[in-house]
Specification:
Length: 355
């Protein structure tokens, strides 16, 4: 009876191999928990979003759920069933599929979402269309390189080593980073142009919030992507890159949900409070969308009344340039959310606290 060949001894630097795998998986699961909460918030607040947008959101979530399960299978293979087995640790197992392939699909979908948002906010400008095409090309190139590299890793059972895999990994990560930089730069350019035109009403403030959030989230994904890129370029024979690349997909999916859920603050945002001396009225004007009486809270010796403006608050404003039109992802549910740069124009007089 032949005995199995002895496994290679565990090297003294085993932590350099296992730590990035473990930390990347833990951060991946943490971000999945954040994504679940974001999805609940989205489902509760925006059940009326158009079908294509909801299809994007739920598809990304299902893909991320699959990726999370595969990440768990990888970790079980490396550190549980393969505990103490160095050959298991040197095998990528399913990570070639769940990190570069699934991650690139998610990043491609999210970047296309922001490309559409840029094009709409720019008023469908032909110049911005060129920028959008460049961003799409960067995203597609990154996705193709990532998918090819993932299949290569799975078939050859090895991590990034050799010239081919290194080039594919660098193309994937640099394409994503360049796309994020162009998205953030386009948003900043559009915001600067709006400010130079002297916009100061609520719609411009809402646009500023959208742009700031987009830039901040894209800076986060760009930073993690560049860190991964540098680790692959400088230390291709080490596993350090597995930690940041494991969370890239989750960062993109959370970016999508955060951007959509930000409409909650925009929808409820514009509030103006007028204080009055004792014995007179104090009221709060709110952009909370309704034409009916909403809420009255009496506080002696004055009263605080929350009322709403009428549907004519947007009269004369070109909202298609602000929120992209009734059917765009930037719309703040215009049929139910009405705001104004003159918050007291259509307020109804309720009564007097001295009555």
């Amino acid at each position: 009876m032949s005995t199995p060949p002895p496994t290679p001894p565990i090297p003294p630097n085993i932590a350099e191999i296992t730590a990035p795998m473990l930390l990347g998986s833990l951060w991946n699961w943490t971000l999945y928990g954040v994504l679940v909460v974001q999805l609940y918030v989205y489902s509760y607040n925006f059940p009326g979003d158009r079908t294509s947008l909801k299809l994007l959101v739920y598809s990304v979530f299902l893909i991320e759920t699959l990726q999370t399960a595969l990440t768990g299978a990888d970790l079980y293979y490396w550190l549980v069933s393969g505990f103490g087995n160095l050959e298991r640790l040197t095998s990528p197992h399913l990570s070639g599929f769940d990190v570069p392939i699934i991650g690139s699909i998610v990043s491609l979908a999210v970047q296309f979402f922001f490309v559409y948002r840029i094009w709409v906010l720019s008023g469908r400008s032909s110049w911005f269309l060129i920028v959008c095409v460049i961003i799409c090309l960067c995203s597609i190139t990154a996705a193709v390189a990532a998918c090819y590299g993932g299949v290569y890793v799975y078939l050859h059972k090895k991590f990034v080593s050799g010239r081919v895999l290194k080039v594919l990994a660098l193309t994937w990560l640099s394409g994503n980073a360049l796309g994020d930089i162009l998205i953030a730069g386009s948003m900043l350019f559009h915001l600067g142009r709006r400010r130079s035109e002297g916009g100061g009403n609520f719609s411009d403030h809402a646009l500023s919030k959208v742009v700031r959030l987009t830039v901040e989230t894209n800076v986060l994904t760009t930073t993690v992507g560049i860190i991964s890129l540098l680790m692959v370029a400088i230390f291709p024979d080490k596993r350090w890159f597995t930690c940041p690349t494991a969370i890239l997909g989750k960062l993109y999916s959370n970016t999508l949900l955060v951007s959509l859920n930000n409409r909650i603050s925009l929808r409820e945002g514009h509030r103006a409070v007028v204080k009055s001396p004792p014995g007179t009225f104090a009221f709060t004007a709110s952009s909370q969308p309704t034409s009916e009486f909403m809420h009255v809270e009496f506080k002696m010796p004055s009263a605080a009344v929350i009322v709403a403006g009428s549907s004519e608050d947007y009269a004369g404003q070109d909202t298609s340039q602000i929120f992209g039109g009734q059917d765009d992802v930037e719309s703040l549910a215009m049929s139910s959310a009405r705001t104004t740069s003159q918050p007291y124009r259509n307020l109804a007089y309720i009564g007097s606290s001295q009555a």
